[in-house]
Each structure stands twice: as C-alpha cells, then as structure tokens.
C-alpha cells in the first residue's frame, strides 16, 4: 500500500470512521466527504487515486455525483466504486450500467477492505463483493 489517496464519500459518521480508520491503518491517505456535492468538489482538488462512493447521500446521490465526476477530464481515469447497503443483484447491475468501476456492499468487512481497495487500485475495475 503505497500511500495512494482514497476519497471516501459517505454520510454515515460511523461508516466513514470505520473506512477511514481501516484504510489509514494500512497506509492509505484518506480524504473524506459527507455529501455528493462535497465529494465532487474534493475530487477536483485532492487528486484521488480511487473514490469510494456511497449511493444514498444528502443532496445529490452517488449516481449524480458519479455523473459529475465523469464530466471532469482530470478524473477520467480514477476508478469510482459504489459503496452501498443495497446488495441485490439488480443493484449491482444498476451500478455497473451507471458507470461505477466496482461495488462494495455494506456492512464493510474490516478484514477484506484493504485488499479490495488494493485490487481496485491495481486493476481499475474489479468485481469485488
């Protein structure tokens, strides 16, 4: 884990703390946003290597935030992974159709999260559960 910068967009303080603590402990630089608007603004200024995006956010949702991120040419190659409690097959397919590079379901596995993030950083796209 090379100190890559991970932008986590999550409005639930407990989930945000968990993801931040786990990823920081293994050497990632974690930047946090608590709304879609804040996430889009931060992505433009913090130069993330990966974005973990909750789908249900106050203001614009994760789908709209993804659409705005994809419009920014500076962020075109940055993988954006959906982070959601919706774990049905249709939900996974909807995120793929929307253009997300992957999908992580909640509750987050503390044990698996670092390797999942590493896979997304290495491969850009991955089918990680």
Count of helix runs: 5
Shape-level CATH architecture: 3-Layer(aba) Sandwich
**Radius of gyration computed on alpha carbons:** 13 Å
Number of strands: 5
Mean pLDDT: 90
Number of separate structural domains: 1
CATH homologous superfamily descriptor: Response regulator
Distance between the termini: 20 Å
Secondary-structure-based class equals alpha/beta
Low-confidence stretches: 125-129
Describe the protein's architecture and organization.
This protein has a single domain (5-117), classed as Response regulator (Rossmann fold). The relative contact order is 0.18. It has a five-stranded parallel beta sheet with strand order 2-1-3-4-5, sandwiched between helices. Helix 3 (62-70) links the parallel strand 3 (50-54) and strand 4. Helix 2 runs parallel beside helix 3 (62-70). The chain is 42% helix and 19% strand. It has 129 residues and is α/β, with parallel strands linked by helices. The longest helix is centred in the first third of the chain and has 13 residues, at 13-25. The chain is built from five helices and five strands; from the N terminus they run E-H-E-H-E-H-E-H-E-H. It has helices at residues 13-25, 36-46, 62-70, 89-98, 113-123; strands spanning 5-9, 29-33, 50-54, 80-84, 102-105. The chain is globular. Residues 125-129 have low confidence and may be disordered.
């Amino acid at each position: 884990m090379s100190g890559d910068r991970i932008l986590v967009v999550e409005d639930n303080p407990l989930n945000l703390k968990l993801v931040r603590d786990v990823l920081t402990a293994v050497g990632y630089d974690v930047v946090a946003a608590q709304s879609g608007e804040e996430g889009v603004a931060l992505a433009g200024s913090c130069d993330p290597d990966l974005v973990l995006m909750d789908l249900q956010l106050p203001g614009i949702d994760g789908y709209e935030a993804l659409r705005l991120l994809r419009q920014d040419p500076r962020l075109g190659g940055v993988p954006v992974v959906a982070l959601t409690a919706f774990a049905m097959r249709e939900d996974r397919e909807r995120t793929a159709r929307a253009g997300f590079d992957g999908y992580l379901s909640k509750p987050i596995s503390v044990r698996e999260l670092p390797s999942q993030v590493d896979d997304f950083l290495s491969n850009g796209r991955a089918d990680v559960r």
